[in-house]
Each structure stands twice: as structure tokens, then as C-alpha cells.
Amino acid sequence: MQVWDPDRYAAHARFVSDLGAPVVELLDPRPGERVLDVGCGDGALTEKLLEAGCRVVAIDASEAQVRAARRRGLDARVADVTALDFEGEFDAAFSNAVLHWIRDPDAALAAIHRALAPGGRLVAELGGHGCVASVRAAFGEVLARRGIEAERLNPWYFPTAEEYGERLAANGFDVDSIRLFPRLTPLPSDVTDWLETFAQPYLAGVPDGERPAVLIEMREQLDPVLGTPDGGWVADYVRLRFAATRRD
Ligand code: BEZ
């Protein structure tokens, strides 16, 4: 299971919202628009939407992150994106680095479609096909030594542009643009901090006493691939960025 801790997030994951600026740009938020921020985290990007003059409702599944977003003065609510109860209330929906955590992407897209007014925009970025492939491969090797099949624990959905485009169309959206691209992402701290922040479902699948050894082995496995000569780390992210419009 994945648990978001706002302090850990601020220390090891601030780059997620920092690198979300181009998604806000693609949304092109306009003053007075009603915007739904799907998976707001601690609200760093929600603030940008407010600064653009939008009226924003922000939702997140994590109570701790919603509390952190509320401390910024935002209208943030705990909600499951697959079970939203908004009906035609928003001019646009925005989402950064969240939709790859959703196990039922069609339910999420259907709920967002319902929340938008006809003609409303959905602009989002998520991890795309091939994202953190080296991390997944390393978990495959390290956990196989313990008789654990890593793919069973994989919490992420990293679709191709074609697959996600088809889902958008099937859920009532016209796709205005969709693009899959690699984005090597320098990490602010050790790769083990990244693993403990973002890859908890894999670590939770290992007996408690084994976790420190798994982290050491993961670090050894990843060092030749993601380590930099100066001792830093760069993750092999792939992004899927799209803009779509509610068809009817
Ligand atoms: C992300 O938040 O973008 C992300 C999380 C886990 C794996 C890869 C990407």
C-alpha cells in the first residue's frame, strides 16, 4: 500500500510539482474558470491554478496530503477519483502525476467526464509506457531472489499513447493532443529515498526484516544504470501528456 507523508513528499518529491509547470501551461487556465484538480497532493500546483484566477476544487485520496493542501488555504477534499459525485460542474479538469496510480482508468475517466460541463477540457500528465523500467527490472531481480514475483506488486499503470487515447475516446472525450516522451529526472536525494517515497507497494510485499537488505540490493542494482559520476541519481521517467475535450 502507498501512503503519502507530506514531509517526506516535500523533502524527496518536490520535483513532481516543480516539473508539472508545462502541464499547467497546456491547460492554459483562464480567470473565472471552474477547475477540478484531480490528485492535488499538497496543493503546490493547485496554487498556480488559483494564481491564474481559477476557482479550484482539489481532490486527493490521501487525508494527510489534503490536510497539507488545506494549510495553503485551498478547497481540498478527500475523494476517490473513480467515485466522484460532481455532475457537469467544471470547465476543466487538471491532473499531474496521479493517473498512473489508478487501477481502474476507465472508472476515473468516466467520473472526470461526468464532472466536466460539455466542452470541458481534461489536461493531464501521467507516467507512460516504459516509465522507470530500470526500477521495475531491478525489483524483478531483487525480489526473485526471495521467491517473490515483483510484477504482482507493481502499483503503476503506464499506458502507451495509443492505448490511453482509445480509453479517452471510449469515455466520451475528443483527444486534442497526446504525446509520450522520455524525461530523465534528476532526483533530489538518494535512490533509496525515491524507493521509500514512491515504491512502497513493492517494499510492503517483502517481510519487514528483509526491507533494509532489499533497499541495499536495489541501490547496487540501479547504480550502474541510474547513478551519475558525481554520486547523484537520475530516474528514467517516461511521461504521457494529453489534452482532451468532453465530447457531449
Ligand atoms: C510519478 O509520480 O510521476 C511517478 C511515480 C512512480 C513511478 C514513476 C513516476
What structural class is derived from the secondary structure elements? Answer: alpha/beta
Q: Which CATH top level class of the domain at 6-132 and 155-187 and 237-246 fits?
A: Alpha Beta
Please report the number of helical segments.
11
Shape: globular
Kindly state the percentage of residues in helix.
Answer: 25-40%
- Chemical compounds bound to the protein: benzoic acid
Strand content bin: 15-25%
Q: At the fourth CATH level, what is the homologous superfamily of the domain at 6-132 and 155-187 and 237-246?
A: Vaccinia Virus protein VP39
Mean pLDDT rating: 97
CATH-derived topology of the domain at 6-132 and 155-187 and 237-246? Rossmann fold
Largest sheet: 7 strands, mixed
Arrangement of strands in the largest sheet: 3-2-1-4-5-7-6
Tell me the radius of gyration: 18 Å
CATH architecture of the domain at 6-132 and 155-187 and 237-246: 3-Layer(aba) Sandwich
Low-confidence residue ranges: none
Could you tell me how far the N terminus lies from the C terminus, measured between alpha carbons in angstroms? Answer: 37 Å
Number of strands: 7
Order of helices and strands, N to C?
A: HHHEHEHEEHEHHEHHHE
Describe the structure.
With 248 residues, this protein is α/β, with parallel strands linked by helices. It has helices spanning 6-12, 14-18, 21-27, 44-51, 63-71, 105-115, 133-144, 161-170, 191-198, 200-204, 211-226; strands spanning 34-38, 55-60, 76-78, 90-96, 116-127, 173-186, 234-246. It has a 7-stranded mixed beta sheet, sandwiched between helices. Helix 7 (133-144) packs across helix 11. The longest helix is centred in the last third of the chain and has 16 residues, at 211-226. The protein binds benzoic acid (BEZ). Benzoic acid binds next to loops.
